[in-house]
């Protein structure tokens, strides 16, 4: 069982949760410090071992909880444009692996659970890595947009978008742009999202029981010119996003003049800010993983998807420990605590993002 979140809580309840007799003599200190059995820190919340000890620390404790990474999610509160995470106090260039994401000459992947929190046309920033304050702009952006078609009124283009570009003053400047229209004819069966309205509340599509979808993006520069340059996954099903020039309402990936980025002085953002011309995320995010130098395979995606439940951190690390991972479980040092692998790349809060108990399962 799990202890209640509120109301009466007695020593007998804690005893039973710890697998002891309800009538056994119980010291709240001994219970909290593991004398009766190690505290299961996979349960969030769980009592701490620091004095003073209190019964209130036991509310919601589940002694048999499994180590999922999804008790909380991050919300940008759907207000303003600056409620997210960013690398303010740590240098991305010196803190993260010397092997940075390089869509022009390498492989890299992003995977995250996503829940749009709107029912209208909207644009929202999910992720950005950008060099700011210089004449050269190197940028990776992941965002989403819902727009009614200008040529087909009543039909909505519900896009997830990946953009990469290096503007070094040389013509042409190098770029990859990939638009996955999750409600076009090729993808609506996979996503379950209708094109008769916007993606979001009332039109979530094929999602888990808390209305989250696992979105995965895999970049492989060796596949320039093919449909495998940018692979998109909805849960563990690959979307159809062909390599072709842009056409209204159709999924496409296109690339030209690719140039390797220089991430010196780069800043990384997750959600909720208007860097450039993209406004707040207008969504909830959970279990955000970034692989700097790994192309996730279809089997990797299936492992992470885990049948629709956020998998343990070990499943992510088994793919590669060259990983940045944010599960939004901690208030200290903040929502941006990185727990993925080799790096302690903690993100600062920008504005007032909120940790919410409406997570992916």
Oligomer: single chain
Overall strand count: 16
Cα distance spanning the termini: 18 Å
What's the overall average pLDDT, rounded? 89
Give the low-confidence spans: none
Description:
This protein has 361 residues and is mainly β. 10% of the residues lie in helices and 28% in strands. The chain folds into two domains: 1-65, no CATH class; 73-356. It has six helices and 16 strands. Strands 1, 3, 8, 9, 10, 13, 14 and 16 form an eight-stranded antiparallel sheet that branches. Strands 11-7-6-5-4-12-2-15 form an eight-stranded antiparallel sheet, with no helix packed on it. The protein is globular. The chain starts with 10 loop residues before the first helix and ends in a 5-residue tail after the last strand. The model has no long low-confidence stretch (mean pLDDT 89).
Give a short synopsis of this structure:
This protein is mainly beta and 361 residues long. The protein has helices at residues 11-17, 28-32, 92-95, 188-191, 298-305, 313-319; strands at 73-75, 84-86, 107-116, 122-131, 137-148, 156-167, 174-181, 213-220, 230-234, 237-238, 252-256, 266-270, 283-291, 323-326, 348-350, 354-356.
Entry keywords:
2 domains, 361 residues, 6 helices, 8-stranded antiparallel beta sheet, mainly beta
Blueprint of the fold:
Blueprint: H1 11-17, H2 28-32, E1 73-75, E2 84-86, H3 92-95, E3 107-116, E4 122-131, E5 137-148, E6 156-167, E7 174-181, H4 188-191, E8 213-220, E9 230-234, E10 237-238, E11 252-256, E12 266-270, E13 283-291, H5 298-305, H6 313-319, E14 323-326, E15 348-350, E16 354-356
Antiparallel strand pairs: 1-13, 1-16, 2-12, 2-15, 3-8, 3-13, 4-5, 4-12, 5-6, 6-7, 7-11, 8-9, 9-10, 13-14
């Amino acid at each position: 069982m799990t202890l209640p979140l509120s109301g009466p809580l007695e020593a007998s309840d804690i005893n039973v949760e710890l697998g002891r007799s309800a009538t056994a003599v119980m010291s709240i200190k001994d219970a909290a410090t593991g004398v009766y059995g190690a505290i299961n820190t996979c349960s969030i919340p769980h009592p701490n071992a620091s004095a003073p000890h209190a019964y209130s620390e036991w509310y919601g404790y589940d002694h048999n909880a499994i180590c999922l990474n999804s008790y909380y999610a991050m919300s940008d509160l759907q207000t303003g444009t600056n409620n997210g995470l960013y690398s303010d106090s740590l240098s991305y260039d010196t803190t993260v692996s010397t092997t940075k994401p390089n869509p022009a000459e390498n492989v890299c992947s992003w995977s995250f659970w996503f829940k749009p929190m709107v029912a209208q046309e909207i644009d929202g920033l999910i992720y950005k890595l950008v060099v700011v304050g210089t004449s050269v702009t190197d940028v990776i952006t992941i965002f989403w947009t819902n727009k009614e078609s200008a040529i087909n009124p009543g039909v909505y283009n519900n896009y997830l978008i990946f953009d990469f570009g290096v503007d070094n003053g040389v013509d042409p400047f190098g770029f990859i742009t990939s638009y996955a229209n999750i409600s076009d004819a090729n993808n609506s069966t996979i996503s379950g999202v209708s094109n008769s309205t916007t993606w979001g509340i009332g039109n979530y599509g094929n999602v888990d029981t808390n209305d989250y979808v696992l979105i995965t993006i895999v970049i492989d520069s060796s596949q320039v010119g093919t449909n495998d340059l940018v692979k998109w996954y909805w849960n563990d099903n690959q979307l159809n996003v062909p390599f072709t020039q842009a056409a209204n309402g159709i999924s496409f990936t296109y690339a030209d003049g690719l140039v390797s980025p220089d991430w010196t002085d780069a800043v990384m953002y997750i959600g909720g800010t208007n860097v450039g011309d993209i406004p707040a995320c207008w969504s909830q995010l959970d279990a955000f993983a970034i692989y700097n130098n790994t192309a996730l395979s279809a089997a990797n995606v299936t492992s992470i998807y885990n049948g629709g439940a956020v998998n343990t951190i070990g499943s992510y690390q088994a793919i590669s420990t060259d990983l940045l991972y944010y599960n939004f479980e901690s208030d200290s040092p903040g929502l941006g605590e990185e727990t993925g692998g080799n790096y302690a790349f903690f993100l600062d809060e920008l504005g007032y993002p909120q940790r919410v108990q409406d997570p992916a399962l």
